Amino acid sequence: MSFLYALDLIGTAAFAASGALAGVRRNMDLLGVLVLGTVTATGGGTLRDILLGDFPPFCFKNETYLYISLGISLLVFFQHHRFDAFKNPLLYFDAVGLGTFVVIGTGKALDFNMGFIGAVTMGIMTATAGGVTRDVLSNRIPLILRKEVYASACLAGAVLMTVLHKTALHPSLTASLAALTVILLRLLAIRHNWSLPKAKVPN
Amino acid sequence: MSFLYALDLIGTAAFAASGALAGVRRNMDLLGVLVLGTVTATGGGTLRDILLGDFPPFCFKNETYLYISLGISLLVFFQHHRFDAFKNPLLYFDAVGLGTFVVIGTGKALDFNMGFIGAVTMGIMTATAGGVTRDVLSNRIPLILRKEVYASACLAGAVLMTVLHKTALHPSLTASLAALTVILLRLLAIRHNWSLPKAKVPN
Amino acid sequence: MSFLYALDLIGTAAFAASGALAGVRRNMDLLGVLVLGTVTATGGGTLRDILLGDFPPFCFKNETYLYISLGISLLVFFQHHRFDAFKNPLLYFDAVGLGTFVVIGTGKALDFNMGFIGAVTMGIMTATAGGVTRDVLSNRIPLILRKEVYASACLAGAVLMTVLHKTALHPSLTASLAALTVILLRLLAIRHNWSLPKAKVPN
């Protein structure tokens, strides 16, 4: 099992936990929690594969992603009070997932010969579309559209990877640098409570 | 016309009625009601076909589904007060649609060589994604994520069908057993007001 | 550059502006505004291409659409107060985009041998699905499902184009007539404050 694949599964688990917790908080029943956890963890990659025309999407080719998502969501459903103690570790795993998903998404889009904006979009989308779907299904304005340096960290990593892709750098070095950029930016944003500028709307 | 196809069209009509009624209640105009009815009736199968990579989706290959959805939605728009009297029959037709859609969705996924979770997911999705879209477009948390033994009945039927699929049982017997399971569970749930457990959230 | 392509880009810019303005009003950060503008401008055509099975979707084949959407969204983010003065012109450009998108969507669906309802649906969807997504992401009931002769103007144009398509009329004449129908209906609706009938719901 490659290192990237291991990180991918860790990220999947972290994303599933965040989705399942949102379901628990919204008073959903068992099945709702399973759906929300799974969609959060696999929705981004699924949307990417649909747009790339690669069928069936990754998680149906390798169901490991679905088993992990469902397993973690079950665990959250029955033991969600214990996850409160893990709030900080969860944020770190989530950051790892974010970096990994960006790198996997951007890399796959480049393999499919997408252009610059296409590759960057696919990278960001892989990492964030699951969370957007989680928020839409929970009847909220998606968090990443409103605040936090979250998608922006993905943007930075996806741009870096797309640019480095044209250089002579070894692919695994390119991927590592891009992933680390995302993870680092995200962790710094959490620690220092960074946020992007907003347009000033006169009341 | 096969028996399964007849049930499929009945289910389509029932789902369209439920979507169109939601539109009427939300004070939508004529076109909004048509859209909501049609999306509720055909959205699940369409999402399934997209994920399976089968283009164009079923309702564009055979527009009968779209004509029925639009016709029923028109009827609901102009005669919606009469549907109040049909509330109970509608629930039964809806249950028939649920069972039929699960069987059709699971069966198609198995034909496309999806794995266990994939086939079960496609079965549930075919029966429920239209209703989820209806609720998202109506700006509500999707009903099936919150309560009622609805998606759970689909889950039971989809699992049964996927398991029986590996046995020597005749496909039409397998399909009938799975569809009946869904319909029966759903009707029992309505009658006895069943619901799934929810996670206990303090406060 | 063909005349239709020029109109297409104008429509893209107008739709991006409307999406980005919605993001600004909803207090989204820079990236949220970029996402909302781009999704509004390109979401309809993207959904159409997914349903037609034409991958990757148009805006990833020709990234001009994405560059325009992102550029306009950036402009709106930093200069949104200036767009207030342009409110009326924006409505006209939006109407032009509406007509153009309907014609392009319907035409493409006919090229892909879709049936009558399929072609009409693709035409309406190309013009409206981006706005629907904008509203779902902003946590609102989609505007076009609630009021205004907006989707209805698209319906008229898409039906006209599909019908004329079977006649001996020259394709560019067919397209022009259909686009003008949409634009004219939309402008008349704005000026005279038209709306579609709603079902009467007894309180």
SSE run of chain A? HHHHHHHHH
Oligomer: homotrimer
* Number of DSSP E strands of chain A: 0
First-to-last CA distance of chain A: 54 Å
Largest sheet of chain A: none
Radius of gyration of chain A, Cα only, in angstroms?
A: 17 Å
Q: Helical content of chain A, roughly?
A: over 70%
- Number of helical elements of chain A: 9
Strand content of chain A: under 5%
The structural class of chain A is mainly alpha
The pair of chains with the biggest contact is: A-B, 32 and 31 residues
Low-confidence stretches of chain A: none
Average pLDDT of chain A: 89
Domain tally of chain A: 1
What would the principal axes of the Cα set say about the shape of chain A? globular
